[in-house]
Write a structure and sequence with these properties.
- By secondary structure, the chain is mostly helical.
- The chain contains 3 helices and no strands.
- The radius of gyration is 17 Å and the shape is elongated.
Length: 100
């Protein structure tokens, strides 16, 4: 699964925002696990927003453009989380193959 440059840029921007919201500066430790948890949580929230938008369109209370935008955002975030997961698994497998 290839990640397009726009998705990567958005993921980088979200990670930077997450670090800023935690008050991380050059000398602070950044918890990678917490960043991943935040990304997964945001992907879940995006999926919920997309579902709510879909229900609103079915009820005639929203515009189809809002649904398409919400679904595209949810899909992009999910693809980014999956790409990070795949890279982490690949790195772990590479470490396991290293000679002791």
């Amino acid at each position: 699964m290839a990640v397009d440059p726009l998705s990567a840029a958005r993921a980088y921007q979200q990670a930077a925002q997450a670090m800023q919201s935690r008050g991380a500066t050059g000398g602070d430790q950044i918890d990678f696990g917490a960043l991943v948890q935040d990304a997964v949580r945001q992907a879940g929230q995006s999926a919920q927003v997309a579902e709510q938008q879909s229900l609103a369109v079915a009820a005639g209370q929203a515009d189809i453009v809002d649904v398409v935008t919400a679904i595209a955002a949810a899909e992009t975030q999910l693809q980014t989380v999956i790409a990070v997961r795949d890279q982490v698994i690949s790195a772990y497998q590479e470490i396991l193959r290293m000679p002791i």
